[in-house]
Amino acid sequence: LRAQYEALAARNLQAAEDWYRARCARLHERAARSQEAVRASRREAGECRRQLQARLVEMESLRGAHQSLERQLQELEERHNAEAAGLQDTIGQLEDDLRNTKNEMARHLREYQDLLNVKMALDIEIAAYRKLLEGEETLFNMGSVGLPALNSLPNPTYSFEPRSFSSST
Asked: What residue ranges carry the coiled-coil annotation (predicted)?
């Protein structure tokens, strides 16, 4: 009985040792796989950290570039506003000059019209005097039929051609 118990105990011990070794082998195998997964996870985490650092550096660089561009944009806007104000002043001055020039042209046109009216009146008056002179000359010629010596004088004729002025308004 004892031998049976010892054989049974030896078998149980052997089975327990086999189970223990198989279990340890599986655990070692699982531990090796887990350790490889941990290494892969660490490598991946390290790669992610490096990428994160690169992205942070890139982000800081872009932030600096953005701030620089914002400053440049603000300076350009200020310069543009100053130029626009200067151009508005120039436009105002030019409009004043144009208004003054138009007023001066209108004044010159009125003066020209006045002078033209005076000229027309003088032309009418000259034409009237010419008619009178021609009438006198005709009377003088008619009355001097008996005076042949006076007829030998050249016959003065007056001709006047008034100029025509055109004005554009």
From this structure: 59-118
Contact 116, 167 (CB under 8 A): yes
- CA dihedral (57, 61, 66, 68) in degrees, to 10, reads 150
Cα–Cα distance, 67 to 59 (Å, whole number): 12
Q: Scanning the structure block, which residue is given the tokens 């994160």?
A: 52
Q: How is residue 123 written in tokens?
A: 């032309």
Q: What is the pLDDT of residues 70-110, one digit of tens each?
A: 999 999 999 999 999 999 999 999 999 999 999 999 999 99
Q: Are 127 and 160 in contact (CB under 8 A)?
A: yes
pTM exceeds cut of 0.85: no
- How far apart CA 114 and CA 169 sit, in angstroms, is 14
The alpha carbon of 70 is separated from its chain's Cα centroid by a whole number of angstroms, namely 19
Give the CA radius of gyration of the chain.
62
20 CB-near residues (< 8 Å, 6+ apart)? none
Alpha carbon separation from 100 to 93, 94, 104, 106, 109 (Å, rounded): 10, 10, 6, 10, 14
Name the residue among 76, 73, 94, 95 with its Cα closest to residue 84.
76
